[in-house]
């Protein structure tokens, strides 16, 4: 059994900071459960372009308001508490955070915690064996 608290993650290597977001990683590839679980905050007034070419991501909004844009189709979706989106087609997308937007994210395959977005917004596929 694994039990972790957000207060115990903040300020550790599992608390990953970027210019437009922070991601607190509760579950990572090293936990060997087949997915990773993150508490992520996208900062108010920012826009984050992403493309998970190597991962499927499910995102559930628990706080805040924003807009998700599918960069491939131009479709726009309001993001607010209670809204979930699933990037099951590796869509290029942008999240515009009108307020701080807090989400719970699940990645498959799981991230290791060492990934950073490249110039295209992609996380590389890193496995624990690559460590």
Summary keywords:
about 130 residues, mainly beta, Jelly Rolls, 6-stranded antiparallel sheet, 4-stranded antiparallel sheet, 1 helix, about 5% helix, L-ectoine synthase, EC 4.2.1.108, RmlC_Cupin_sf
What would you say about this model in short?
By secondary structure, this protein is mainly beta.
Tell me about this structure.
This is L-ectoine synthase. GO terms for molecular function: ectoine synthase activity. The protein has one helix at 6-9; strands spanning 15-17, 21-27, 36-42, 47-51, 56-63, 66-70, 76-79, 84-87, 92-97, 101-108. The chain has 131 residues and is mainly beta. It has one domain: Jelly Rolls (Sandwich). A six-stranded antiparallel beta sheet has the order 1-2-3-10-5-8, with no helix packed on it. The protein has a four-stranded antiparallel beta sheet with strand order 4-9-6-7, with no helix packed on it. The chain starts with 5 loop residues before the first helix and ends in a 23-residue tail after the last strand.
């Amino acid at each position: 059994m694994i039990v972790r608290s957000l207060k115990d993650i903040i300020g550790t290597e599992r608390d990953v900071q970027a210019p437009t977001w922070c991601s607190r990683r509760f579950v990572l590839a090293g936990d060997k459960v087949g997915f990773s679980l993150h508490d992520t905050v996208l900062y108010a007034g920012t826009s984050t372009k992403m493309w998970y070419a190597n991962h499927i991501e499910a995102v559930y909004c628990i706080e805040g308001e924003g807009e998700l844009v599918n960069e491939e189709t131009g479709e726009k979706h309001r993001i607010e508490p209670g809204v979930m989106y699933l990037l099951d087609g590796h869509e290029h997308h942008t999240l515009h955070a009108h307020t701080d937007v807090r989400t719970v994210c699940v990645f498959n395959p799981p991230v290791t915690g060492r990934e950073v977005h490249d110039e295209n917004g992609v996380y590389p596929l890193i496995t624990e064996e690559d460590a």
